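Meet our chain:
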Amino acid sequence: MKLLTVNFLTCAVKSCKSSAESFPLHFQDAELEQRAIGYNPTFLSNILPRLDWDAVTTTALELGFTKLPATKPEGSADTEEEHKVMRDLHTLLMETEVIEGKMVCRNCGHEYKIKEGIANFLLPNHLVDGGSAATPEERVSK
């Protein structure tokens, strides 16, 4: 699971929909892997406005990446410093993947396991139905 993806995910538990604490999801026991991908400054410049920078920096710090600036870059690489920031952002968002571990909601504590780079967002019935104890057959007959 690429770290870029996490910036667009929130807890799927119904009671968390209105809580600001359900975003971003926080990694625990994350096993990271880096895979080289061609640098695409145009993609980064286009995706930057869509990123929640506070969530990006929170995730980065939790995973040990300390090179990102406190404020969101503008997306240009006009100076050497800006180019370095964009390359670091590319490394974090595009080349870094979580292979194993889990993401945890700060609001409800639900854990989403990650196995072989794929997060499992399937919820148990009691979290989907708001507590309904109906069997699958009862739900189909309704």
In short: The chain has six helices and four strands. The CA atoms of residues 1 and 118 lie 6 Å apart. The radius of gyration is 18 Å.
